[in-house]
Amino acid sequence: MSEIFKDMLCDSKLQGVLLLIDALDECSTGLNQLLDLITETSQLTSAKWLVSSRNWWQIEEQLCTVAQRLSLEVNASSVSTAVDSYIMVKVSRLSKLKGYKDDTASKVRQYLLSHAGGTFLWVALVCRELENTHRRKALQKIESFPTGLDAFYKRMMHQINGGEDAELCRQILALVATTYRPLSLAESTILIEECHGLADDLESLQDTISLCGSFLTIRKDIVYFVHQSAKDFLLSKEYTAFNQILPSGIAYQHHSIFSRSLEVLSKTLRRNIYELRAPGSSIKDISPPDPNPLASLKYSSTH
């Protein structure tokens, strides 16, 4: 596939090609091959790559021959200006959404400007919390947010541990942090025993996941971390969050997922589960029924 891709980029009729990769450091498999592809095609073709990544020495080392690189740390003032503009837009939208008075909007804006520390994600997470806060409590709420992502995550973890569904939230975080890919809502319900009764009520599961604060988000019924930094925080043994969600360790969590998968597969799978009339049907000719009895078993069947 890479050779076909390189041949496409070498086509003289193909002009003005711009390829974008965000968060290259989050590439979990094939990173070295991808870096080789970027380096080779940037030198042999007219294609241009726009790549963002955290400062990992492996990536820095392989991209050292690239002519143009921009360090956000070195250009902190430019980043800070962009974050300030982002804050102005977010507060303007919040004001319209929540009906803030001018004084409230001004104080929210000022707090964000003075505590953002040049971090887009921190601003986004704080504003997300404010969206779920009554306007009369907006100032009280925003002043409770500490500066910095790690401090923000610690606060969120403390809030989760003090909630009525603390144990369930910790189970959800442990599951999402250790599975090999993002799970669908349906897959999540069967891998957490307390959520098994929500298999036919995904809206309630969404509400439950929302209790996990600003660690998780749901897009098209798939559960993701809001950012790689959230997962890194939970899995770092430097913080108490690791022992809170994984008191017996990662290996034990994988064993629990494995055991739970065997249990639900044994209870759910049966001969001709799609009730096909012709057992010799090609898979291309089969349309899964709605609801699909295998939808929640995809992860368990694969991993």
Automatic annotation (TrEMBL):
<keyword id="KW-0677">Repeat</keyword>
<protein>
    <submittedName>
        <fullName>Heterokaryon incompatibility protein</fullName>
    </submittedName>
</protein>
<feature type="domain" description="GPI inositol-deacylase winged helix">
    <location>
        <begin position="155"/>
        <end position="239"/>
    </location>
</feature>
<feature type="domain" description="Nephrocystin 3-like N-terminal">
    <location>
        <begin position="2"/>
        <end position="54"/>
    </location>
</feature>
<dbReference type="InterPro" id="IPR056884">
    <property type="entry name" value="NPHP3-like_N"/>
</dbReference>
<dbReference type="Pfam" id="PF22939">
    <property type="entry name" value="WHD_GPIID"/>
</dbReference>
<dbReference type="InterPro" id="IPR054471">
    <property type="entry name" value="GPIID_WHD"/>
</dbReference>
<dbReference type="Pfam" id="PF24883">
    <property type="entry name" value="NPHP3_N"/>
</dbReference>
